Amino acid sequence: MLPAGIDEGIRFRRVDLPGRPEVRALACNVTGTARATTIADGDAVVHTTEHLLAALYALGVDNAVIEMNGPEPPVMDGSAAPFVALVREAGVVAQDAEREFLDIQETLVLESGETIIVVTPDPDFRISCTVKYNSTPLDCQYLSLKVTPETFVAELCEARTFCLYHEIEHLMTADLIRGGSLDNAVVIKGDAIISKDGLRYPDEFVRHKILDTIGDLFLVGRRMHCHVIAVKPGHPTNVAMAQRIVEKAGVTHG
After folding, report:
1. Per-residue pLDDT averaged across 133-137, rounded?
2. For a designed S-S bond to 186, which of 2, 116, 162, 210 qualifies (C-beta 3.0 to 4.6 A apart)?
3. Is residue 116 a part of any domain in this protein?
């Protein structure tokens, strides 16, 4: 992670490819949302951007270059905590420009199957999320909070990715969890929670879904003032909402 100039946004640079091509972390560059969010611009393809983007958003990083020698950030422990630690170690500095916020002016609603995402005007950036999978004694989980550096570090950043046991065979066949293990994910099997070190929060699943939503909505390219109300959110609907916000607000990027 390297510093970047004013209004350059978040850019991923593939240093392993000829010409070191870059792709900006913007909703218009999303090319895939199967279990993770993928962005691409020409040869610059980057998978699983959401955890790193969530950490950058929460810690107030507007401009940065992410250099990578492969197509995906390290999975680390399946959470955003390692990225938070790195950003805090490096430090964040103010730049000589006013930060631009996008104030949501009207309520936007997106529904797809069991998923509903509503974005409404709010003076802060707040997320209220509900998840229910009918396959765990922890159903259903709900959490609502104002997203700040403090709440992200204390309440969200350590929440790990998870999957249902019956999904594993399909995910392996689709080559979507090549690096997955109990070192970086939680598996739900009936009444059992399979994890190397137990749960980090009693409601870790809803917290991770909020983390993913923060990272995906950062693809709007600006910080927002709004209240996001999400029921069973996922990457496809998160990104679709980010694209709709960009379209409705007429957001442009230099």
Report:
1. 66
2. 162
3. yes
**Number of domains into which the chain is organized:** 1
Quick: pLDDT tens for 38-92: 999 999 999 999 999 999 999 999 999 999 999 999 888 889 999 999 999 999 9
- Give the residue numbers spanning the domain of 209: 2-249
Q: Is residue 254 part of a domain?
A: no
CATH number at residue 159: 3.30.1700.10
Q: How far apart are CA 25 and CA 216, in angstroms?
A: 9
Task: Give the residue-averaged pLDDT of 208-212.
Answer: 96
Active site residue 235: yes
Check 51, 170, 235, 253 and give the catalytic one: 235
Q: How far from each other are the two terminal CA atoms of the chain, in whole angstroms? A: 21
DSSP one-letter string for 130-196: EE--SSSTT--EEEEEE--HHHIIIIITTPPPEEEGGGHHHHHHTT--TT-STTT-EEEETTEEE-S
Q: Does some domain include residue 11?
A: yes
- Here the tokens at position 127 are 């997320």
* Element (DSSP H or E) covering residue 78: none
Residue 223 lies inside a defined structural domain of this protein:
yes
Poorest-pLDDT segment among 17-31, 223-237, 240-254: 240-254
- Both tokens of residue 8? 């350059």
